[in-house]
Amino acid sequence: MKILVVCGAGASSAFVAHRMRVTGKERGLTLTVVAGSESDLPGSLGTVDVLLIGPHLAPRYDRLSAQAKKLGVGVALLPQTVFAARDGIQALDLAVNADHERSWV
């Protein structure tokens, strides 16, 4: 599974992506997690399975989600708590659920 984590500038998402990679490895999952900024969209959507959107982008969630879903990409909005988390459990669980939901569409 390939996951793109986006935030406004890409800095916060880099920390989340790193923690997700560590958690995924601990779970024995094969995944690629990359960080990006909102400006990377929609160009990078065609290359991922799941898009995780940072909470500060919530006002644009509907638009970003629609773009992703058009391409068969699973989408989830990250809660504010994800940036303070010491691990990637919450974010990875959201990504796995979003991937599962897109598989049923």
From TrEMBL:
Residues bearing the modification Phosphocysteine: C7
A Pfam family this chain is assigned to: PTS_IIB
Every PTS EIIB type-3 domain range: 1-105
UniProt GO molecular function: kinase activity; protein-N(PI)-phosphohistidine-sugar phosphotransferase activity
Keywords, comma-separated and alphabetical: Kinase, Phosphoprotein, Phosphotransferase system, Sugar transport, Transferase, Transport
Gene Ontology terms describing biological process: phosphoenolpyruvate-dependent sugar phosphotransferase system
Listed InterPro entries: PTS_EIIB-like_sf, PTS_EIIB_2/3, PTS_EIIB_3, PTS_sugar-specific_EIIB
Name of the protein described by the UniProt record: PTS EIIB type-3 domain-containing protein
